[in-house]
Amino acid sequence: MIGSGMSKRLPYTNKDVDYDNAKFRHRSFIQAFTQSLATSNLKRDCTSCSTGKFLLLLLVFGLAYVMLTHTSPGPIVSDNQAIGDGKSENNLITKGRITLKSLLRRPPRLPPRLPPDSKSSSNKIGHVNQDVGSVWTTRQKKVKDAFIHAWSGYKSYAMGFDELMPLSHHGVDGLGGLGATVVDALDTAMIMGIDEVTAEAGSWVEAHLAKRISEKGQVNLFETTIRVLGGLLSAYHLRGGEKGMNLTNAGPEPDVYLDIAKNLADRLLSAFTSSPTSIPLSDVILRDSSAHPAPGGLSSTSEVSTVQLEFNYLSSVSGDQKYSVEAMKTLDHMKTLPKVEGLVPIYISPHSGQFSGENIRLGSRGDSYYEYLIKVWLQSGASHESNTSYLYKMYVEAMKGVKHLLVRKSIPNGLVFVGELPNGLNGGFSPKMDHLVCFLPGTLALGATKGLTKEKAMLNNALSFEDIENLKLAEDLAKTCFEMYSVTSTGLAPEIAYFHTEEFSEQGLEGGNKSSEYVNDIIIKPADRHNLLRPETVESLFVLYRITEDPKYREWGWQIFKAFEKYTRVETGGYTSLDDVTYVPPSKRDKMETFFLGETLKYLYLLFGDSSVVPLDKFVFNTEAHPIPINLKK
Ligand code: DMJ
């Protein structure tokens, strides 16, 4: 059957030959010619006739001669010349002549030609970039989903309360009862483009907040300013107020936010005007606009110096300078006070106007003093000639003090950390670092480039030796802050870490992740093992990613986000603080802090997204992550 089938097989038709070869394989002229002879009727008719054989041979040699000696009349362009530089040794055409070599050699395999436009987008790097882009888009979407989940828990069980207790499904007023989560979350919803949440939060503000402000009792000046006043002012700008960004049309008109902000700030002003010095009192009774010192009489240094961005912006958009004037008196006065190499104690007396005690740290009660020195100067336009330039000088001096007095390295693996001087310059050094200190890498990076990318700042010749040193310190500290997460069993940082040094060591207090390189460098005491969903590390990762453009900061942020998802997400809605990050499963605290929506998720969202959204050279983020535009009009 096979043999007979073969013998009976019909010769290829020209169509078959074309189909077999022409589209997929290049053929030389000789191949095509001999194949054509072998398959043509001419073969069958003439091969038995000797005259025919002679004529056929003559024809073959004649054609071969013509081809070997023929010179092309015009330029011949090969595939190589069209794609490459035309100088390749593989070029088959030499001075317009077809050579025997060229006839015998198989043509090289060439990549498919593409129209010029498609070339750049189909190269390997292009594909890789596209893939990387879509990975971060997907991750950013997951952060947005997390925000929606956090909001839905709050809305279901705690709408109008300051905070959600996500396990017991209650609300709690830990901040004076102004619905702090609503206002803290509002601009995050705007930035994420979630109109439904923007409308819900905005409508609640419009319907309830003014009444609350007029009826409520005691609030803390600092907490109310950074969360509620700051949130209202950002919402005003992002909603399009005073030619703001107009990110959304959802929720009330921008002036609704501004009017409530003024109402609130008018009452908060009493903390300044009731003080015998330029240092404001700590608390305000909203309903009667009276102010009171904290128990013990002292204010926190960070609190009195972390309201100026908000009051300045309010003056700018309201046209009423009283807010800015009062708030800036505090910083003007602090300029005159004695310091330790730019570093300041964490308490200050509104009665004497002097610092109190000697405890120096960049953690709680100290932190955002340093942050606002540079940010208020940036907000005013970052000029060395402006009347805020003293703040830049105070910042520069303070960072020198930090490097000289507070920065050390751990053993055995050399993590750079910022410790404390609990008893001042003449007391001992404590290798204790609050998670709160992790704001510092971001602030250092911002102070170095003033919000530009490092590349652009270098191109502009805008980095001094000190700026470069500060940027390096920022990167080292960001790594330490990230390792404070990696070193624990849950991948979440404790509230406070200690660092193993030559002078200080404690055994058996590890984070629990044995595979961490730094398990012996970081010590976590039992009382410090909680996690409150704090933002400082992801805040710094966001700023450092924007400034250095190094993708590792995004990766670190992603690791942290995954750990939050794994251990703090509550199925019925919301996220919860934890009691102990060193143990799996961690016990839960039943509290979702407002800054998880206001800061932590916002910074993660921005970290994974496009750097042109809320650019760092056009906005300063207040200490609660509410963006405020820079370059205010007076
Ligand atoms: C926030 O309220 C602010 O970031 C403040 O500066 C420090 N504490 C919390 C977040 O941890």
UniProtKB/TrEMBL annotation:
Residues of the active site are 223, 367, 495, 536
Keyword Transport listed? The answer is no
Q: Which reaction does it catalyse?
A: N(4)-(alpha-D-Man-(1->2)-alpha-D-Man-(1->2)-alpha-D-Man-(1->3)-[alpha-D-Man-(1->2)-alpha-D-Man-(1->3)-[alpha-D-Man-(1->2)-alpha-D-Man-(1->6)]-alpha-D-Man-(1->6)]-beta-D-Man-(1->4)-beta-D-GlcNAc-(1->4)-beta-D-GlcNAc)-L-asparaginyl-[protein] (N-glucan mannose isomer 9A1,2,3B1,2,3) + 4 H2O = N(4)-(alpha-D-Man-(1->3)-[alpha-D-Man-(1->3)-[alpha-D-Man-(1->6)]-alpha-D-Man-(1->6)]-beta-D-Man-(1->4)-beta-D-GlcNAc-(1->4)-beta-D-GlcNAc)-L-asparaginyl-[protein] (N-glucan mannose isomer 5A1,2) + 4 beta-D-mannose; N(4)-(alpha-D-Man-(1->2)-alpha-D-Man-(1->2)-alpha-D-Man-(1->3)-[alpha-D-Man-(1->3)-[alpha-D-Man-(1->2)-alpha-D-Man-(1->6)]-alpha-D-Man-(1->6)]-beta-D-Man-(1->4)-beta-D-GlcNAc-(1->4)-beta-D-GlcNAc)-L-asparaginyl-[protein] (N-glucan mannose isomer 8A1,2,3B1,3) + 3 H2O = N(4)-(alpha-D-Man-(1->3)-[alpha-D-Man-(1->3)-[alpha-D-Man-(1->6)]-alpha-D-Man-(1->6)]-beta-D-Man-(1->4)-beta-D-GlcNAc-(1->4)-beta-D-GlcNAc)-L-asparaginyl-[protein] (N-glucan mannose isomer 5A1,2) + 3 beta-D-mannose
According to UniProt, this protein's pathway is: Protein modification; protein glycosylation
Q: Which InterPro entries match?
A: 6hp_glycosidase-like_sf (IPR012341), Glyco_hydro_47 (IPR001382), Glycosyl_Hydrolase_47 (IPR050749), Seven-hairpin_glycosidases (IPR036026)
Q: Which UniProt keywords apply?
A: Calcium, Disulfide bond, Glycosidase, Hydrolase, Metal-binding
What SUPFAM superfamilies does this protein map onto?
Seven-hairpin glycosidases
Any one GO BP annotation for this protein: carbohydrate metabolic process
**What cystine linkages occur within this chain?**
438-481
GO MF terms listed in the record are: calcium ion binding; mannosyl-oligosaccharide 1,2-alpha-mannosidase activity
Q: Which residues form a coiled coil?
A: none
Positions that bind Ca(2+): 623
Transmembrane residue ranges: none
Quote the protein name from its UniProt record.
alpha-1,2-Mannosidase
